[in-house]
Specification:
Two copies of one chain form a homodimer. By secondary structure, chain A is of the alpha+beta class. Chain A contains two helices and seven strands; from the N terminus they run E-E-E-E-H-E-E-E-H. The relative contact order of chain A is 0.27.
């Protein structure tokens, strides 16, 4: 079309804040790989060329937690250049819930283990990347006592 | 850190829906280059590695329209793989307004010309990419008579 060099832009990921058990608990994974190996994190991963960010979110949630999710709402883009020590990665985060009542959470793929944590306990944890900021931005902690 | 290949993800852009004249008008550019050469489009462009999507939006708005903008709200990510004929590009769109009352709109950089269009005329236009969808998603057309 023209001869401009192909632009280089940050890598793109999608992350899922998955609420379960009548929205009282959140599904987190223990990271199998660096960075933040062994830390708790939101399920998520890189967006493939050819898929929407919403499909990437749903796919990564399934791959890492075995849960088929539906998206409730967009939380937002998180794009601080220092949020991933490997390099600049922009995450689009979504609030999700299980698609059916019959989902069976199970750690898979990049997840070493899966943990289902009450929302009231979240802020006492150390999470990977800026995932605590993502969870706070989602608004799900606003109405806790 | 580990030996996994570097992931390939869609390119990332930021687009600005800029409201002016007491939020009655929107600032569009005539595209100087393909694709959609000569069509009207939102100001915007590729996100640089090392800058946030918000900063990219503000920078591109300035580069193309000469307007220093502030972001009012996130409109959302737009990631249909077919939205850009050059390849898969994900845009993060923001609703913006001029930072001061003294901004001087002027076509620059990738913009062949700049047009300030009343919101009431927008839906009769043909816009590049999915920019009409972005404008409609922003909600700014909801209260027009």
């Amino acid at each position: 079309m023209n001869n401009l060099p192909k632009p280089v832009t940050p890598l793109l990921t999608a992350d899922a804040v998955i609420l379960v058990n009548n929205k009282r608990d959140i599904v987190l994974i223990r990271r199998k790989n660096p960075p933040f190996q062994g830390d708790l994190a939101l399920p998520g991963g890189f967006v493939d060329v050819g898929e929407t960010v919403e499909k990437a979110c749903v796919r990564e949630a399934k791959e890492e937690t075995n849960i088929n999710v539906k998206i409730i709402k967009l939380i937002g883009p998180f794009s601080d250049p220092k949020r991933d020590p490997r390099g600049h990665t922009v995450s689009i985060a979504f609030l999700c819930e299980p698609k059916t009542k019959n989902e069976k959470p199970k750690a898979k793929d990049d997840a070493a283990a899966l943990e289902i944590i009450p929302l009231s306990k979240i802020t006492s944890l150390k999470l990977a990347f800026d995932h605590m900021e993502i969870i706070k931005s989602s608004g799900i902690l606003n109405n806790l006592n």
